[in-house]
Design brief:
By secondary structure, the chain is of the alpha/beta class. The protein has helices spanning 19-27, 72-77, 80-96, 103-107, 120-133, 142-146, 150-159, 174-187, 205-213, 253-258, 287-300, 318-332, 350-353, 360-374; strands at 4-13, 16-17, 33-35, 50-52, 109-114, 165-166, 193-200, 244-252, 265-274, 309-311, 346-347, 376-377, 400-401, 406-413, 417-424. 34% of the residues lie in helices and 18% in strands.
């Protein structure tokens, strides 16, 4: 099988627009979560009134202004999640220096990008308009703006990429599945280059209300939103919905070397599993997560002892964080791994950016690649007091300089779908 490497990165996150701004603010301990009641008065009725929103502002200052990234025609045709994806793809392709012009190069370049929920605002607004005014109130672009695969579709159309065009939608595992599936297209010879990632933007009162009714969200931090997302902390109460996008340019190793591309890391392993257990809750022992990580390491042909860092899914829920923590320890401790829990390096970047749902796996894969590139373990902010059983090294509140040659990054979704990606230094 052909080897797959990362040659480009792009990001739009609640910490800012652009990879470097997002990464630097993450390492500095900033938080992108805020109160959203000013955005829509209906949020005030909800028990959770906070979200991790992409900041508005000028591109040069790390803010989002659609006109700086898209033409008026493009903006009109795209849902916000697709707009974020387009911006992240532009940055990633520029970073990779990949601008194919001949037919064969374009035929061998594909896109694999999905979303968990997609264009929630459009659904809600159209239903309301239809109920009030009937058929004529349905916009002609309603369906094209609704389809999750249009994020990938718009990228391929803009750049003329005619390789595999694929969109995963597996809840909060979407971003990781998209990257792993894209790597398989390259490994099997169906493409030389893939633009891969995930995007999400569904910060709407009905969406937040739905997650709140499911008792998934942190509801006790409306007055101090920056403290709400607290992975692994004994006082964690639930996750915070976020928005944004991340894109990785994946490339066949010799193809990248032949054109002198900068190589961030190699995607060595990809593992998938199912809990086969419950719609929203994992097994308490983290069996599904364990299996996904085990498969990723088997694919990578690496022992547990080789793992220097785990970027955890850890959304700040009571059950989810504990299950993943148990799975990580089960895999990485023992004769083939580390001898003490304190030697297991784990952090969750969701304290800073919230949970980007379908975009989360892609953003966290990007952060894992940068952790390898710069030998820095990003912090788990808001970790003030670990509960029983949480005895690994979680980089509480501050980044840690470490030699990181191999990193795992985990993503899990409703329905019990799990994925783990293994990145390694080339």
């Amino acid at each position: 099988m052909r080897r797959v490497v990362v040659t480009g990165l792009g990001a739009v996150t609640p910490l800012g627009v652009g990879v470097r701004r997002s990464w630097n603010r993450l390492l500095d301990g900033h938080c992108g979560i805020g109160n959203v009641t000013r955005r829509d008065s209906r949020f005030a009725e909800l028990p959770c009134q906070i979200a991790a929103v992409v900041p508005a502002g000028l591109r040069a200052e790390g803010g989002w202004t659609a006109e700086e990234w898209l033409s008026k025609s493009e903006e009109r045709k795209m849902a916000l999640f697709a707009q974020y994806a387009m911006a992240a793809a532009e940055e990633a392709l520029e970073d990779a220096g990949w601008k194919p012009v001949d037919g064969e190069q374009r035929e061998n370049t594909g896109v694999c990008l999905g979303s968990g929920i997609g264009n929630f605002d459009e659904i809600y607004n159209t239903v309301v308009a239809y109920e009030k005014g009937g058929y004529k109130k349905v916009h002609p672009l309603f369906v094209p703006k609704l389809l999750i695969n249009l994020g990938a579709g718009h990228i391929s159309m803009k750049y003329g990429f005619m390789g595999p065009n694929h969109a995963a939608t597996t809840a909060c595992t979407t971003g990781a599945h998209s990257i792993g599936d894209a790597a398989r297209f390259i490994s099997s010879g169906e493409a030389d280059v893939m633009v891969a990632g995930g995007a999400e933007s569904c910060i709407h009162p009905l969406a937040i209300g739905g997650f709140a009714r499911a008792r998934s969200l942190a509801t006790e931090f409306n007055d101090c939103p920056e403290k709400a997302s607290r992975p692994f902390d004994a006082d964690r109460k639930g996750f915070v919905v976020g928005e944004g996008a991340a894109v990785l340019v994946l490339e066949e190793l010799e193809h990248a070397r032949s054109r002198g591309a900068h190589i961030y890391a190699e995607l060595r392993g990809y593992g998938c599993s199912a809990d086969a257990y419950h719609m929203t809750a994992p097994k308490e022992n983290g069996a599904g997560a364990y299996l996904a990580m085990k498969k990723a390491l088997k694919h990578a042909q690496l022992r547990p002892a080789a793992v220097d860092y785990v970027n955890a899914h850890a959304t700040s829920t009571v059950i989810g964080d504990a299950a993943e923590n148990a799975a990580i320890k089960s895999l990485l401790l023992g004769p083939d791994g580390m001898q003490k829990a304190a030697e297991v390096n784990v952090s969750s970047t969701k304290g800073a950016i919230g949970h980007l749902l379908g975009g989360s796996g892609a953003v966290e894969a990007l952060f894992s690649v940068l952790a390898i590139q710069e030998n820095i373990m990003p912090p788990t902010i808001n970790l003030e007091r670990c509960g029983d059983g949480f005895d690994c090294n979680y980089a509480p509140n501050h980044p840690q300089q470490r030699k990181i040659d191999v990193a795992l990054t985990n993503s899990f979704g409703f329905g019990g779908t799990n994925s783990s990606l293994c990145f390694a230094r080339v």
